[in-house]
Amino acid sequence: MKKIALLGYGTVGSGVYELVEKNRDRIFKKYNKGMALDKILVRSLKRYETLEHYELFTNDFEDIIAYEPDVVIEVMGGIEPAHTYIRHFLENGVDVITANKDLIAEYGGELLALARENGALLKYEASVGGGIPILKAIQESLRGNHFDGVQAVINGTTNFILTKMHNEDMPYKDALKIAQDMGFAESDPTSDVCGFDAGRKLAIMSSLAYEKNIKWSILPIEGITEIEPIDIENAKLLASKVKLVAMSRYEDNRFYGAVRPVFVNASSPLGLLDNEFNGVQLTGDAVGAIHFLGKGAGKLPTASAVYGDLIDVIQDIKLRPDVQFDNDFTSTKTLPCKAKWAIRVSGTNLMEMTQCLTYVFIDNKLRIEKGHSSSDILAIIEETNEEQLITKLNMLFSNPYVEKIKHFLILDSL
Ligand code: HSE
C-alpha cells in the first residue's frame, strides 16, 4: 500500500483527489497495489468543513511528516513553503510529484540533484501544458532525438484572451475577466498576460529538450498587454492570428529562447489552437516536427498529468531522474536566423513614413501592405535577422513623423 499525502487542495488538488478515488479499484486490480490518500495539507481548514472527507485535512505540516507518506503530491503553487516541504521529503528519500512550474523553473536542477542523491523520484509533468504529456515524451518516447526547436502556445489564459479578441472583437479586459472566472488564470494574472508563466514553462521544456540549465530569467519575455485591435486586424489581413508563442532554438551550442506575440498562419497547427488549448511543436533530428495539442489548464486535465506521474511512482518504476543539465552554452536575445516580419508603423504623415521606410529598408525585401487608417502602415520585411531589423527600426524611429513601431515575427517563415 502506497501512502500518499496531498499538499494543497485548490482546483488541481481537488481534481487529483477525485481521480485517485475514481480509479482506486481499477488501479488495484491492474497493478495489485493499493493507494491511500489519507492526508491533505491546507492553509486554513474552514473552507473544507462541509466535505465528506474532511477528516483527511490538516493545516499542520507536522501531521504530514508523522503520516510518513511514500509519495507526496505538491499542488500548492508558489515558491514557499512548497520549496521547503519538497526539499524535506526528497532529503528523506520520499518520492515527490509536483505541478508547480514556478518552483521547477527556478529550482528544478537543484531539486532533481537532491532527488538523485537520496534515491527519490521527482516528477513534474503537470508543470507544463496541463494535460499534455510533453515532458514524458521528451524524456522517454523521443530519447533518440537531438532537439533543435520548440514552438509552443503554452498559456491558456492568453490564448483564450487573444481568441476572443480575434473572433468576437472582445476588449482585452472583458476576455481576461472571463478567463479568470473560468479558472485558467493564475491568482495574479500578471504572470499570464506578461508572459512569465509561458517563460517558466518554456525554460522547463527547453532544459529537458537540450539538457541545458536554462533559467527563465535569461529569456526575453513580452506578453500581450500591448496588443491592440489594430494588431489583430493586421494579422487577419495576412491570414494570420496573433498568438503568444514560447519558442526556443538550439544549434551549435547557441541557445535562443523567447516568449513573444507573433503572427501565426491561421490554418497552421498552432494557428488553429483556440481558447484555452495549448500546443507544442518539437523538432527532433530523428522524428522531425511533432505536435502535441490539448487542454493546457483546468482541474481535470492538470490532475490527469499528476495522476500519470503517480502511476509511474506506484509501479516503482525506477526511472531515476537521469537528466543532468549543464551550463555549456551561449545564449542570444534576438532571433538568430533570417525570418519574415510584419512591421506596424504609426505616426502623423503616411507619405513621409512610407518614404522613410522604403529608404531604410532599401537593401531588404520590403512589401508595403495597405494600412487600416491614415496613420498606420503595415509592411512585410523578408529574409532579415532580428538584430539587423532592430537597427533599421531604430533609424526609422528617428523620423519625426513616426510615433510608434511594432514588429511581429511571422512564425511560418522559420
Ligand atoms: N495560468 C495557466 C494558463 C494555468 O493559463 O495556462 C496552467 O498552467
Q: What small ligands are held by the chains? A: L-homoserine
| Low-confidence parts | none
Residue fraction in strands: 25-35%
Q: Give the CA-based shape.
A: elongated
Mean residue pLDDT: 94
Give your account of this protein's structure:
The structure is a single chain. The protein has three domains: 2-123, Rossmann fold (3-Layer(aba) Sandwich); 144-295, Dihydrodipicolinate Reductase, domain 2 (2-Layer Sandwich), CATH 3.30.360; 339-413, ACT domain (Alpha-Beta Plaits), CATH 3.30.70. 37% of the residues lie in helices and 26% in strands. It is built from 13 helices and 16 strands. It has helices at residues 11-31, 61-67, 82-91, 101-117, 134-141, 156-168, 172-181, 190-193, 196-210, 229-237, 299-314, 350-360, 386-397, and strands at 2-7, 35-41, 57-58, 71-74, 95-98, 122-123, 147-153, 240-251, 254-265, 277-284, 288-295, 330-332, 339-347, 365-369, 376-384, 402-410. The strands form three sheets. A six-stranded parallel beta sheet has the order 3-2-1-4-5-6, sandwiched between helices. Strands 11-10-7-8-9-12 form a six-stranded mixed beta sheet. Strands 14-15-13-16 form a four-stranded antiparallel beta sheet, covered by helices on one side. Helix 1 (11-31) runs parallel beside helix 11 (299-314), helix 4 runs parallel beside helix 9 and helix 12 packs antiparallel against helix 13. The mean pLDDT is 94. Bound molecules: L-homoserine. L-homoserine binds at residues 130, 155-157, 184-186, 192, 197, 296-297.
